[in-house]
Specification:
With 224 residues, this protein is mainly beta. Helices cover 5% and strands 33% of the residues. The protein is elongated.
């Protein structure tokens, strides 16, 4: 059964890394940040987990919604922040059907074998400073800035057991989830008859999808 039961849950270990610990103030190189995630605890050991990655740190985008917080903060002076230009969008779902695929949600599978996944973020130099009042010329070479994951964006909107390219490929994933409907409050739980006839897979309780940050802030040193 791919629909999690009310008591099912999973814990994911999250590690944040970068391709380099330095960033040149005189080049156009991008800052590459990687979100690495793997299963470290599960009520169903040996089973993969598929999530709706949208609006979370697992989406591979979204500086403007705060996946890495408000910005990069100077270690030397925390009042100095490279502002990421955070907005608080109001999401609206106009699709009528209850299927995740119909609504265009991006699905991502975290493997059962503990190898994990890597979600890359390539932040261009221009994007890094696009919304910031702190400019490259205001930064002293050698100054270090910290980036960290916003724990509020580690929460996922929907999850279930199984591999999106394996056992649940092509299956009918319903937006409703245990513990409440986190994707669309207007969607009711389908009846048992509907679940059987349409082969619906329901989501697990998102409050039982736990993420353990094993990194904390990482530092980027600015160089000439």
């Amino acid at each position: 059964m791919n629909s999690p039961s009310a008591g099912d849950g999973v814990t994911i270990a999250l590690i944040l890394t970068t391709s380099s610990s330095t960033l040149s103030l005189s080049s156009s190189h991008s800052l590459e940040v990687f979100v690495c995630a793997r299963i470290i605890h599960s009520t169903c050991p040996g089973r993969s987990v598929t999530i709706a990655a949208d609006r979370s740190v697992f989406a591979g985008e979204g500086l403007e919604i705060g996946v890495f917080g408000l910005g990069a903060v100077s270690r030397q002076d925390p009042s100095r922040v490279i502002d990421f230009g955070i907005i608080r969008p109001r999401y609206r779902d106009d699709f009528e059907g209850p299927s995740l695929s119909e609504r265009g949600y991006r699905l991502l599978t975290i493997p059962a074998d503990g190898t994990g996944i890597v979600v890359p973020y390539e932040i261009s130099f221009d994007r890094l400073f696009k919304h910031s009042t702190l400019r490259p010329e205001d930064i002293t070479p050698g100054e270090e800035f910290e980036i960290k994951v916003n724990h509020g964006r580690c929460e996922v909107l929907w999850w279930c057991w199984g591999d999106v390219e394996g056992e649940i490929k092509g299956k009918n994933l319903h937006t409703w989830s245990q513990g409440g409907n986190y994707l669309c409050s207007l969607d009711d739980r389908p009846s048992e008859k509907e679940i059987r006839e349409k082969g619906y897979i329901l989501g697990g309780d998102v409050d039982k999808f736990k993420v353990e940050d094993q990194t904390g802030p990482i530092a980027i040193r600015m160089i000439p």
